[in-house]
Amino acid sequence: MKDPSAPAPHAPASFADIRQRIAKIPRVDIAIKNTPLQEMPNLARHLGGPRIFIKRDDLTGVALGGNKLRNLEFRLARTMSEKPDVVIVGLDLQSNSARQTVGACNKLGLDTILVLEGTRPDVVQGNLLIDYLLGAEIHFARDRHEQRSLLDSLAADCRAKGRRVHILNDNPMFDVASALAYIETLMEMQDQLQTAGVKPTAFYMSSSGKGAAGFEIARKLFGGFAIHSVTATSEFDVPSRTAGIANQTCEALGLDLRLTPSDITNFGGFVGARYGVPSDAGNEATRLFARHEGIILDPIYTGKAAAGMIAHIRENRFSRDDVLVFVHTGGSPAVFTWNQLWTGGASHRP
Ligand SMILES: Cc1ncc(COP(=O)(O)O)c(C=O)c1O
Question: How far apart are CA 76 and CA 27, in angstroms?
C-alpha cells in the first residue's frame, strides 16, 4: 500500500489553480454541492479503530441524490450545446445514474428516454420506480447489443418526428465529467477537513474508474493522503480504466500530468458473487452504518465499498490516530429493491 504521508508525486498544485482550470469547462448548475462532512463516532467506537468521517454525496439534491448529479453538470453542459429537446441514454435496469439523469434532465426541461438492460420486473421498485415517477419513457433491452440498436432506432424515430436528440452514451464528456467532478469533491472535502482541524489518512469510495480517476489526479497533485477505491464490478481492469480516464481528464484541464495503472489503488475483492448482487459483507456494512449512525447505504455500491473499509480496519491496517473518510456516493433507493435483506434477523445493533 502507498505511504499516505508521501508528498505530492507531481509538482505541487494549488486548489485555486485547479479550480480555475475546471471553471473553464462548460457546466450547468444542477447538484447541491458542499454536501456535509460528518464524523461517525459510534461506528468508529464499534470497530475500535481510526476516526471515520463520511462525505454525504448522497445529499446532492435532485431525485434522491448521489454522485452522478455532480458529473451531470459537465455532461449535460456538453449536451445542451447541441440544443436537444430529448436525451436518450442506455444504462442498467436499476441504475442510479439513470435516475439522476432523468431528474437532472427534468430540471433542464429536457425529455428523457431510458433504454435499460434487463426485463421489466413484476414489482417495480428502487431506481426504476423513481425513473417512472420522474416521467421517463422507458424501454428494456435484453443485452448491450440490443440496447445499442434500440438507442439508435429510438433516436432515428425521434429525429423523423422533428425532435432534436442527444444520445448521452456518445457524449465525449461522459467519463471525464465524473473525474472533473471528483477532483472538485476532493478539494471540497479537504477544505471541510481543514476547517475541522483534521488531516485525512485515506479516502474510501465505491468506483469502477470514473470518480476514482478524479481522486487519483488530486492525490498526484496535492499528496498527503491515500485513495482506496473499491469496485462493485469485475467487468473492467479498473486500474487501467482509471488511469486512462485520469489521463483524458488531465488533457482536458491542460495539466502536464499522466497516470499509469500502478498509480491506482483499487480493491476488487469486495464484489461478491457479481455486479448487481448483494454480498454478505456489503449487507453487514449497510446494517452497521444504519444501526450505528442512521445512514442508509445500498447493497450494490456503497455497502460493498464500506465492507472494504471495515475489512481493512479489522485487519488493523490503521491506528487510532488515522482518519478515514468514506464517500457516500448515493444509491440508497436500492435498499427497497432488496427489501428481503433487511426485514429478518436481529433488530438490535450488530
Ligand atoms: C452509488 C454509486 N456509487 C459509485 C458508483 C461508481 O461510480 P464510478 O465508477 O463512476 O466512479 C456508482 C455508479 O453507478 C453508483 O451508482
Answer: 7
Q: What is the pLDDT of residues 283-338, one digit of tens each?
A: 999 999 999 999 999 999 999 999 999 999 999 999 999 999 999 999 999 999 99
* Ligand 1 pocket mutation, candidates 64, 67, 116, 286, criterion most atoms within 8 A of CB: 67
Q: Report residue 344's pLDDT band, with 50, 70 and 90 as the boundaries.
A: confident
> Are both 182 and 164 inside the same structural domain?
no
Ligand 1 center from residue 102 Cα (angstroms): 16
**Which atom of ligand 1 is found nearest the CA of 213?**
11
Is the residue at 326 inside a domain? yes
Regarding whether 180 and 164 lie in a shared domain, the answer is: no
Q: Taking a C-beta distance cutoff of 8 angstroms, is the pair 318, 50 a contact?
A: yes
| pTM of the complete model | 0.95
| Closest to 171 (Cα-Cα) out of 96, 49, 84, 58 | 84
Domain of 19? 15-65+174-343
Same domain for 222 and 327: yes
Contact, 258 vs 250, CB < 8 A?
yes
Which residue from 69, 171, 234, 329 has its CB within 8 A of the most atoms of ligand 1, so it is best to mutate? 329
What is the tens place of the pLDDT at every residue in 202-238?
999 999 999 999 999 999 999 999 999 999 999 989 9
